[in-house]
Amino acid sequence: AQKITQTQPGMFVQEKEAVTLDCTYDTSDPSYGLFWYKQPSSGEMIFLIYQGSYDQQNATEGRYSLNFQKARKSANLVISASQLGDSAMYFCAMSQSGGSYIPTFGRGTSLIVHP
Amino acid sequence: EPEVTQTPSHQVTQMGQEVILRCVPISNHLYFYWYRQILGQKVEFLVSFYNNEISEKSEIFDDQFSVERPDGSNFTLKIRSTKLEDSAMYFCASSERRAGTGRNQPQHFGDGTRLSIL
Fold first, then answer.
1. Residue B107 in 3-state DSSP?
2. Which residues of A touch B33 (CB under 8 A)?
3. Which residues of A touch B89 (CB under 8 A)?
4. Is-cis flag, bond preceding B8, omega within 30?
């Protein structure tokens, strides 16, 4: 069974500073994918970044980067130069290539960016 | 950029009634999904659909639920005899390939339908 854990229910960051949102996972499948989604207060789910288990380099997408530590089974999202519009819920998700491929979501972290 | 479209954005229904939630996936996507998110909780998988049939479903997706792709563009979720606990945000998603297989195969989500059962 796959499991995603996001231990930070809420995070606060000052505008223009960097913030790290934690995500740990548990799987016995060697092939898997990790995703981060953003959910603003309006409710939509926005895909941010993807990391494959065999990717050699950490994924980056603009101000988003994924700090992938395979041995620790962690896939933390780093947001650099936070903006007020980054205030939202952030969900980590994992899918496996073997067995059920359906992504499993963590409980989410609420990020509030202060001016 | 192409996007997944869901209608209506908000549906209010009396308990016991049937509702149909509609989704138009991205046109070249082959895999379709429904998720739900009860207020303040995590996103839960309901069902996936590929090649005109259900490929996987969760324990939540019981006989009360059904999905259909009535034409080449729409993907619907029907909830029969709705209960108060069915109140949630329902998300449709689609992906070009099976989700999670290979680089950059995310699911693209619609904006959701907020279902309120009275």
1. coil
2. 102
3. 43
4. yes
